[in-house]
Amino acid sequence: MTELIYPEMPANSLVVLIGPSGAGKSTIARTWPASQVLSLDALREVVSDDAGDQDATGDAVAALHLLLEARMRRRLFTVVDATNVTRSAREPLVAAAKRHDMLPIAVMVATPGSVCIERQGPRPANRTVPEAVVVKQRQDMVDSHRTLKAEGFLEVVFSDSLYRLLPFLERLSGTRQADLGLDGSDGLGELNLVRRTFGEEILPLWRWKDGSNVAGGDRVAEIRLGQMYLTLALRTDVDGEGDVGFDVMVPCPHDDECTGYAWVPAYSVTCLFRALNGDLDDDEDIVCTAHGPNNDGDQDDDPDGRADLEEQALEAIRG
User: Fold this and answer.
1) From CA 255, how far away is CA 281, in angstroms rounded?
2) Which of 91, 240, 260, 315 is the most exposed place for a label (fewest CB within 10 A)?
3) Are residues 44 and 138 in the same domain?
4) Helix or strand run (H / E) with residue 272
5) Distance of alpha carbon 283 from alpha carbon 279, whole angstroms
6) Residues 41 and 165 in one domain
7) Residues 234, 145: one domain?
8) Are residues 210 and 84 in the same domain?
9) Residues 279, 219: one domain?
10) CB distance 141 to 85 below 8 Å
11) In which element (H, E) is residue 179 found?
12) What are the residues facing 238 on neighbouring strands?
């Protein structure tokens, strides 16, 4: 196990991350719960819909200071995720902590400048910081090291001395245990598969339609928002090999007036978007309960199978 170098921060701490763009400040910040982190990039996006909009920085800073004051007044552990390489940026943060008897701790993220510059490459154009700016930010960070204590920081530590991996994994483990119901709760149950396939954002829209027989006995669900919805089927024996997955209902590709049900595999939220947008209406993997697969050759080669599908459709309609 990694030796404990710097212990967990006191509960009444204000942690101020200091480092140039690309240093990895946000990666470190994410080891704390999101509710404890004030990110300048995130607030820039909140006020302008664009995290890279530098014209929105003033409003984002004002929002950060407002939120920081509220958290300091409540004496809540807080992390500020911004470059914070200048004294003028740090002074209001330290002042807010001091007003409410909180402990300001400076964390220097001293990633080599070459790495910070290299990390700009994969970023979107609106988030890329020019090399000269990154170099200046890093030099400002280095120059500030000798003044941080005089500015009022109780402690000055380097990020590679932080003891963050264990508490980070502990928090993730606790969340996972709760999702699986291993903490004594009901957990997510079958919604674990839904989240893994389509993402967490889908869960509030997901409703099981127990009792529905449109999927030939397989469990049916619906994703609905207002008047728009999708119907899905949970398949527990995909291709007869015991695999589990989802199909989404789409229009029959053979007959606009078909009374059967047509299904196509849904592997991700992208498939759901394409299904609702009509992009999967002619997908080659569609299987209609009345007309069979979306492949003329397969239909002609297996007339008995098609008749069986038609019978299933009629039973579903009668049911």
Assistant:
1) 12
2) 240
3) yes
4) helix 269-277
5) 8
6) yes
7) no
8) no
9) yes
10) yes
11) helix 165-180
12) 243
| pTM summary value | 0.73
Query: Which residue, of 142, 176, 210, is where some domain finishes?
Result: 176
pLDDT in tens, the chain (319 residues): 333 345 678 999 999 999 999 999 999 999 999 999 999 999 999 999 998 898 999 999 999 999 999 999 999 999 999 999 999 999 999 999 999 999 999 999 999 999 999 999 888 888 889 999 999 999 999 999 999 999 999 999 999 888 788 888 888 888 888 887 777 777 777 788 899 899 999 999 999 999 999 998 899 999 999 999 999 999 988 777 778 899 999 999 888 888 889 999 999 999 999 999 999 998 999 999 889 898 754 444 444 544 555 555 555 444 4
Q: Is residue 166 domain-shared with residue 243, that is, in the same domain?
A: no
> Which residues lie closer than 8 Å to 306 by C-beta, 6 or more apart?
291, 292, 299
Please list the residues that pair with 104 across neighbouring strands. Answer: 14
Question: Cα–Cα distance between 228 and 205 in angstroms, integer?
Answer: 11
Amino acid at 244: V
Residues 6+ apart with CB under 8 A from 42: 51, 81
234 in any annotated domain:
yes
In angstroms, the Cα distances linking 272 to 237, 238, 256, 312 are 21, 18, 21, 25
Would residue 18 count as lying in a domain? yes
30, 139: one domain: yes
Cα–Cα distance measured from residue 319 to residue 297, given in angstroms and rounded to the nearest whole number: 31
**Which domain does 209 fall in, by range?**
200-318
Q: How many domains does the chain have?
A: 2
Give dist(CA 172, CA 159) in Å, integer. 21
**Position 190 in a domain:** no
Query: What is the CB-side half-sphere exposure of residue 72 using CA atoms within 13 A?
Result: 24
